[in-house]
Structure formats: C-alpha cells, structure tokens
Amino acid sequence: MASHGPVGVFDSGVGGLSVLREIRARLPGESLIYLADSGHVPYGEKSQAFIRERCQVIARFLLERGAKALVVACNTATAAGIVELREHYPDLPLVGMEPAVKPAARATRSGVVGVLATTGTLQSAKFAALLDRFASDVRVVTQPCPGLVECIEAGALDAAHTRRLLEGFVAPLLEAGCDTLILGCTHYPFIKPLLREMLPDDISLIDTGEAVARRLEALLDDKGPRLPATGAVEFWSSGDPRRLEEVLPALWGEAAAVSFFSG
Ligand code: DGL
Prior knowledge:
By secondary structure, this protein is of the alpha/beta class. The chain folds into two domains: 7-98 and 209-260, Rossmann fold (3-Layer(aba) Sandwich); 101-208, Rossmann fold (3-Layer(aba) Sandwich), CATH 3.40.50. It has helices spanning 17-26, 48-64, 75-88, 101-107, 119-122, 125-134, 148-153, 160-175, 192-198, 209-223, 241-251, and strands at 7-11, 32-36, 69-72, 94-95, 112-117, 139-144, 180-183, 204-206, 233-237, 258-260. Helix 2 packs across helix 3 (75-88). The mean pLDDT is 95. Bound molecules: D-glutamic acid.
C-alpha cells in the first residue's frame, strides 16, 4: 500500500461529496479519489446483500488505484458492508458513517430526537445497536425518506417537489416534539438550507461529515506526517459521468472531469 497514495471515498451517488468537502477542508494535502456508484443509486431500498457486494467491488477498485485508506461516505453502505470490509482488509485505515445518535442524545433539551435516513439504515442491525448503546435516555423518532436521494441526485436542491417531499418527512418529527434532527444520510447536508427554511430556529441539525474527516485524520496521523502540498482529486461514476460533471460545481464547488467506472 503506497503511503502517498490517495484516500478512496465512495457513496451510492453524490451524497458522499458532502463528506469529501469536509475531508478536503481538514486534509488539503491528501489526494482523493471519489467514486459515485450512480449506476446503482439509491442504495436505500436495496438489499443488504446487494450493497455488501457493491462495497467489495468498489473497495477492490479503489485499492487497485493505490488507495491507502477508504472512507465509506454512506450510512446505508456502512450499515450493510463495513463489517465485511474490515474482515477483508484488517490492516487498512477504514472509516464508515453512522447517524449521530450519541451527540444528538447529548444535545437534545426536549428529550426527543428525530432521525432522517434511508430505509436500509433505519432497518439495519447496526442502527438498532447504536440506539441500544446511546439512546437509552431519550426518545428517538425515525423517518425514512424514500425519493429524497433521487431529488438530490438530480440537483433539485430547492425544487417545489423536493420541498413538498421534505415537508412530509419533517412534519411527524416536529409533531413528536423533536428539537434535534439527525441527518443520517450523506445526501441530506445538501438540503440543509431548505430544511432551515422550513424548521423553527430552535431545532438543531446534526450530521457526521466533519467527525468522519477528524477520524480519518487521526488514522492517517498514526501512519506518518501530513503532506504539505495540495492533493489531486479524481472523480469516477458507475452511472453517466456527464450527470456527475453537471452537479459537481454546485455540490463540490468546482468543475472536474469524471471517468466511467464499469465495475
Ligand atoms: N448517501 C447514502 C447514505 O448516507 C445513501 C443514499 C441512497 O443511495 O439511498 O445513506
């Protein structure tokens, strides 16, 4: 494994770009390879076995391209596949994502926390274990959000239909008395402005991108000194690369060429 190799980051689609931004901000010297599995998005309603297989295929590809560490920038893929990835690559620095139940349980004043996430994440054994571990003193109200990832993939971050869908997901959480909402899917930070518009000011939103970047930094620090230069960033998609190229300026902050991943 090349110690100066890139960090491989993947998601079912564009959601992991919200994590990639945090990694870039914290570790600008690292070269990054981002893979959007857009040919198979959304993961949220797919079987755990299917997602586990995608994790293996994508990890193999990123490692073949020299990745020295992997970030599973997807809650749904982490819930389904990270245990197997750790088994396959026991020496590889590997960071996954999970809904921020622990910080939310600490932050809530009303004692009611809402979780917006995919069906796959909310139904996973990993999520159940997370609740057992950190949410015994609070009430947790979960809300699957089918259809929302597709809106974000299409770049419809503040379209009328995205707003209508989101209002329907948020209403039961507000009715239940949640004062803290966990964004349990890496796509959702992109609709934070829309959420802020529809939520009362005293509702907190919590996501995990920054914590994941910090965790990656700690794992890389164990391996050696930080790189002073600015790293390169490479983008791949298993869907139509032009679709990702179209949304990169809005979601990543600059234009870039995207290569096709046929795996
Ligand atoms: N971005 C992903 C997550 O964090 C999954 C979205 C999807 O493909 O359904 O859960």
